[in-house]
Design goal:
Elements (H helix, E strand, L loop, with lengths): L1 H21 L21 E21 L8 E20 L2 E19 L5 E22 L2 E14 L2 E5 L5 E6 L2 E15 L6 E12 L2 E7 L2 E22 L9
Antiparallel strand pairs: 1-2, 1-11, 2-3, 3-4, 4-5, 4-6, 5-8, 6-7, 8-9, 9-11, 10-11
């Protein structure tokens, strides 16, 4: 009996590899492909509104009727503003390209002087507008950093001058004027998440305006001198942005 059991075990051991060779091969184990991350499509148009704080500087000098000029004097002002705007963006992978425009309701106040005199006046920037383009890069699917640039105009009100020493009014005035120039800026924009299509944007912007020479009016007519000024404006603005054709944002 023992010899029979031993012979059976030996026979099975020898037959095992042959039986295994006849079995069908098992298919290789493969892992499921990774799930693509959920992102947000920035392609579309939007409207925006908000406000911020700004300051302007200017280098001004007086131009006499004989063509001579005085030394430059630097002064400026600051204040708050509100802004509204609109634009459209197109996303290419991790990049976003767009065009936009905005209008600012400003109240930036400061002093302006007539160099080489005691004349000083109160000047206010009361509006500005800009159109331009921007290039953005997606730090995450819902956060974009960007740079922008374009054309801008800023309107300053007329100024009545008075004597800086005693406050007496002077027969000297410059009319309201609109200055033209260019701007560059940069900022961040991100999806707030708690309301479909609602984003938040914060931006710094620098604007440089062309030098313009304005006649100094005396008795309502141009006098023998003019005032030339180079103006720059810096602003920090924050806005709510609503992407009105934003369909949940997922792609």
């Amino acid at each position: 009996m023992q010899r029979w059991l031993l012979g059976t075990v030996v026979a099975l051991a020898m037959a095992g590899p042959a039986i295994a060779a006849d079995l069908p091969a098992r298919p290789p184990i493969t892992k499921a492909p990774p799930v693509a991350p959920i992102g947000y499509n920035w392609t579309g148009c939007y409207v925006s509104g908000g406000g911020g704080y700004g300051l302007f500087n200017q280098d001004s000098f007086r131009v006499n009727d004989n063509g001579s000029t005085t030394a430059e004097v630097t002064n400026g002002g600051r204040g708050w503003f509100g802004t509204v705007g609109a634009g459209c963006d197109v996303q290419f992978g991790g990049w976003v390209v767009g065009a936009f425009g905005n209008y600012d309701f400003t109240d930036l106040k400061g002093d302006i002087v007539i160099p080489a005199s005691n004349a000083v006046g109160r000047e206010t920037q009361d509006s500005a507008w800009a159109v331009g383009g921007r290039l953005g890069y997606l730090l995450t699917p819902t956060i974009m950093t960007y740079v922008n640039a374009g054309y801008t105009q800023a309107r300053f009100n007329g100024v009545d001058f008075f004597n800086q020493a005693n406050g007496a009014p002077l027969d000297a005035r410059i009319d309201a004027h609109t200055y033209s120039g260019w701007f560059v800026g940069s900022g961040f924009e991100h999806n707030l998440g708690w309301l479909p299509g609602l984003f938040w944007r914060t931006e710094y912007r620098f604007a440089q305006y062309n030098r313009d020479t304005l006649p100094i009016l005396e008795g309502g007519a141009p006098g023998p001198t003019s005032l030339a000024a180079d103006k720059t404006i810096q602003t920090i603005r924050s806005e709510l942005v609503w992407r009105f054709n934003w369909s949940g944002g997922r792609y």
